[in-house]
Amino acid sequence: GQGLHLSDYNECIARQAAKWNIPICDVHDSLGWNKYNHSVYFASDGAHCTSKGYEIIARKIWSFIKANEIF
Question: 12-26: per-residue pLDDT in tens?
Answer without folding.
Answer: 999 999 999 999 998
